[in-house]
Design goal:
Length: 192
């Protein structure tokens, strides 16, 4: 009897141990294919992001994220492509979902801050406050989170809050002594 034969009532295919094994093999084969495709899409998409080609990276990173939506690196890379393309609102739900699974992931918080802020020149008061909150969460997760304190300083500078900008740039310069922009802005503000 093959797996295609009908059961005694004539309504459904008869189940056999042979068909269960075949189903298991098929599922394993599909899973391996998805894993291979995930790795290929992530590798190629990440490379394109590093080459500053977010438009080319986007479809690859979307597919990787569809395969593994719980993978924080897939979410981070997809959101990075959206941010680089100026699609800030598309990045927000990807990052917020990823942070539910990895709430201490500083890079996710940094990118969420950038997504909340959007275009800094056009950012509203609400966007700035949400961005500051996300950057602060990044610093809570990692006191040396790259660019988090610097971005907080820039927002406070735009808001005209010199004291908070100075404090943020001091933190940025202390956490990353190679951050020449933070040091330059700090000196400018302290000399005013």
């Amino acid at each position: 009897m093959s797996g295609d034969e009908l059961s005694q009532d004539g309504m459904e295919p008869a189940e056999t141990p042979h068909s269960d094994r075949e189903q298991g093999r098929l599922e394993h084969w599909l899973e391996r294919g998805n894993e291979r495709q995930f790795r290929e899409q992530m590798t190629a998409g990440t490379r394109l992001l590093q080459e500053r080609k977010p438009q080319e990276a986007l479809p690859l990173l979307k597919r990787a994220y569809e395969i593994h939506p719980a993978d924080s690196d897939a979410a981070l890379n997809l959101a990075s492509a959206y941010i680089l393309l100026g699609h800030y609102k598309l990045a927000v739900p990807v990052l917020e979902t990823a942070l539910q699974l990895a709430p201490a992931h500083a890079r996710l918080w940094i990118n969420l801050g950038a997504a909340y802020l959007g275009n800094p020149v056009l950012a509203s008061d609400e966007q700035q406050i949400k961005a500051i909150g996300a950057f602060q969460r990044a610093l809570q997760s990692d006191p040396f989170a790259p660019s988090a304190a610097y971005n907080i300083g820039l927002i406070h500078l735009d808001r005209g809050d010199k004291a908070k900008a100075i404090a943020a740039f001091k933190l940025a310069a202390r956490s990353d002594p190679g951050d020449l922009d933070a040091q330059r802005l700090l000196k400018q503000l302290e000399n005013r």
